[in-house]
Amino acid sequence: MTLFERVHLPSFAGTTEWLNSEPLGTAELRCHVVLVNFWTLTCINWLRQEPYVRAWSQAYRNDGLIVIGVHTPEFSFEHEINLVRQATKERAIDYPVAVDNDYAIWSAFANHYWPALYFIDADGIIRDDHFGEGRYEQSERVIQRLLGIGRELVSVEALGVEAEADWDHLETPETYLGYARSQQFASPNGAAFDERHGYKLPERLPLNHWALAGEWTIGREKVVLDQAGGSIAYRFHARDAHLVLSTGSLEPIRFRMLLDGEAPGPSGGVDVDRDGNGVLRDGRLYQLVREHEAVRERTLEVTFLEPGAEAYAFTFG
């Protein structure tokens, strides 16, 4: 447990907008135990943590717990309030959400991570924190201790994209595609920054490397497809593969994902069918692969049938 020197809960005064609640301040939170959860809608680590936060909110609200989700965007498109509203609805979040588009709350907490949990007692003092996934039993015990209760822990069943990662077989790290944080780019002749350029896939894609094919612009935080028919390929070792996508147009963008050159069949993720077909409509994380058989080294290739697709990062589980 983190030891704090009577650090008080910072103000939420810089909140851009509140969802599921009127604005909450010191008066509204007085005498309540508060759990603050920093998240951003495309973060796979938060998506896998959220079933627990949701369950704690429902299980302990009548005991005096108030959960506040703070949505602080990582990527530029995550500032769009309608996307935050949509993510809140899709994840069945019914507790208050503070939209932190200006990073005011993030800065007030001196926070650096998605997801992050801060546990505040009824006197408004931060008593514990936790960054990243895991530690669920201990975190729930902290909540119970601050509430002054003791009972069986909640039962959580995480499904779909929220399911816990297959940590024993996860050998591929999160990979950003924009040049500010990009690594392991494998298209021949390297990358051209901030300009339209033609790319090809290499004859062989090494493990944990990615490449482009077709006409793309590689920007600071994303790669953008300039001409229909362009592809992104990645060689990975994991049960799940996800890609954070957005669209620069109002029209949906069709895509097809292949695994080792073939339709994924039962190994397709929730955002593709058995033939690998999917549609990019909203900015979010798209699950492309959930391995049906034994986890092994595989190559996924996503081809977009219209221009305008924006790709930000691969994540795995």
Quick overview:
This protein is of the alpha+beta class. About 15% of the residues lie in helices and about 30% in strands.
What descriptors fit this protein?
Jelly Rolls, Glutaredoxin, 5 helices, single chain, alpha+beta, 317 residues, eleven-stranded antiparallel beta sheet, six-stranded mixed beta sheet, elongated
CATH second-level architecture of the largest domain: Sandwich
Q: What about the largest sheet? A: 11 strands, antiparallel
Low-confidence stretches: none
Overall 3D shape: elongated
**What is the CATH third-level topology name of the largest domain?**
Jelly Rolls
Terminal CA distance reads 27 Å
Order of helices and strands: EHEHEHEHEEHEEEEEEEEEEE
CATH homologous superfamily annotation of the largest domain: Galactose-binding domain-like
| DSSP E strands, number | 17
Q: State which percent range the strand residues make up.
A: 25-35%
> What is the typical, i.e. mean, pLDDT?
96
Helix content: 10-25%
